[in-house]
């Protein structure tokens, strides 16, 4: 059976994701679609709107065949490591290809950009370092350095100010750096840009726009047209059960408590907390009663909102620089769910897998997996609802969903 891979967060699964899924299946002519999906904390450094099990159900009901969890250490990492973890898991699942959405929409510019940056690696890295010394944020330094090294190129190159182009570039980079056999494909992102608010006259909106509507209004009717019916039903079931959604606004009392129970020096031990940010974080937590106020207090031109949120995620979950230094590659495959078709495929490759397949987490002592379990428990604690508190520890008892 021919399998293609996709890398997703599905926060939540919407009509744009359905388009990507269907186009991926069509473009690669595959029989199986495997999604590597982030768990309960995401790449932009924030809690997921709903947990990984609900998002797995959305994926399976929409047509994904297998959902594999991207471990916390990669799911909350900068783009390079996020892509590395995802691509290596898809390669381990014997995918012949993977397909990602991009603003570019064709592979040509990705290939040319990779060739350019590979050939000018030293010049590129020096330029990044020089721009960083001027006090700009890391993403801005990357972009300025990229402009500099691409001045003389006559080939079509990527616009690396676009978020999906950036991730797509790192996916392609990972396939080459780690000598995978997996073949990249891309499709054009349609209608809504990554950060756009939802538009009333469209049926496709960004996940950011959809989340904003849900979190601002705390009801689902306004987002129904942007979602497949199965996703809307799953969100309805979630809100009827939990009566709240995952967000830093919701988690702020516990996050604030976590920050303040540490000294400033202790905060510096957590991953991505650098250059005195522990002082700014602690001081703002003392003063700010609301998360939004807290973020605006510590935001600076050197650190993006996303970068700061990743620091906070690691403080909240207790993920340290020491733990981060020990993370190199994914060490297991954890299926969260699968269709009957996916089950057939998994059975056909099971004997050839080069990573252990984990379906019962209690049987594994892998430190990456233990971090996933810890993050899941803290996510449910952060939701602060009766049912979510009952779900603390549920990773040990929840079996992969068979749909």
TrEMBL record:
Keyword RNA-binding appears in the UniProt entry: yes
One example GO MF annotation: transferase activity
Enzyme Commission number(s) of this protein: 6.3.4.-
Residues binding ATP: 7-20, 101, 164, 189-190
InterPro entries: Rossmann-like_a/b/a_fold, tRNA(Met)_cyd_acetate_ligase
Superkingdom per UniProt: Bacteria
Keywords: ATP-binding, Cytoplasm, Ligase, Nucleotide-binding, RNA-binding, Transferase, tRNA processing, tRNA-binding
Localization per Swiss-Prot or TrEMBL: Cytoplasm
Main location: cytoplasm
Any one of the GO BP annotations: tRNA modification
GO cellular component labels: cytoplasm
Similarity section: Belongs to the TmcAL family.
Protein role: Catalyzes the formation of N(4)-acetylcytidine (ac(4)C) at the wobble position of elongator tRNA(Met), using acetate and ATP as substrates. First activates an acetate ion to form acetyladenylate (Ac-AMP) and then transfers the acetyl group to tRNA to form ac(4)C34.
Alphabetical list of HAMAP family matching this protein: TmcAL
Protein name: tRNA(Met) cytidine acetate ligase
């Amino acid at each position: 059976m021919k399998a293609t891979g996709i890398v997703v967060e599905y926060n939540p699964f919407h009509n744009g994701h359905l388009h990507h899924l269907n186009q991926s299946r069509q473009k690669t002519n595959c029989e199986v679609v495997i999604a590597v999906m982030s768990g309960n904390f995401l790449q932009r450094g924030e809690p997921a709107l709903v947990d990984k099990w609900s998002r797995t159900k959305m994926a399976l009901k929409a047509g994904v065949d297998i959902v594999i969890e991207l471990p916390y250490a990669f799911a909350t990492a900068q783009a390079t490591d996020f892509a590395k973890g995802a691509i290596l898991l898809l390669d381990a699942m014997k995918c012949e290809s993977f397909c990602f959405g991009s603003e570019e929409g064709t592979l040509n510019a990705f290939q040319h950009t990779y060739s350019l940056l590979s050939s000018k690696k030293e010049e590129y890295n020096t330029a990044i370092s020089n721009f960083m010394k001027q006090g700009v944020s890391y993403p801005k330094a990357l972009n300025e350095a990229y402009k500099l090294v691409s001045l003389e190129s006559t080939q079509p190159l990527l616009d690396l100010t676009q978020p999906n182009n950036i991730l797509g570039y790192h996916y392609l980079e990972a396939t080459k750096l780690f000598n995978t056999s997996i073949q990249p494909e891309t499709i054009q992102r349609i209608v809504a840009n990554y950060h756009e608010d939802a538009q009333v006259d469209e049926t496709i909106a960004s996940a950011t726009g959809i989340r904003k509507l849900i979190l601002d209004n705390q009801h689902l009717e306004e987002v129904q047209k942007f979602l497949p019916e199965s996703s809307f039903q799953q969100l309805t079931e979630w809100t009827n059960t939990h009566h709240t959604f995952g967000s830093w606004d919701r988690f702020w009392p516990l996050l604030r408590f976590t920050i303040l129970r540490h000294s400033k020096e202790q905060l510096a031990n957590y991953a991505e907390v650098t250059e005195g940010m522990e002082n700014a974080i602690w001081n703002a937590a003392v003063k700010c009663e609301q998360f939004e106020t807290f973020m605006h207090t510590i935001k600076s031109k050197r650190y993006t909102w996303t970068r700061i949120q990743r620091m906070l995620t690691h403080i909240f979950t207790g993920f340290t620089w020491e733990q981060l230094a020990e993370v190199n590659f994914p060490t297991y495959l954890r299926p969260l769910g699968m269709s009957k078709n996916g089950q057939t495929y998994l059975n056909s490759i099971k004997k050839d897998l080069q990573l252990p397949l984990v379906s019962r987490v209690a049987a594994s002592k892998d430190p990456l997996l233990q971090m996933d379990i810890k993050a899941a428990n803290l996510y449910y604690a952060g939701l602060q609802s009766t049912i979510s508190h009952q779900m603390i520890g549920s990773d040990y008892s929840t079996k992969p969903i068979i749909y």
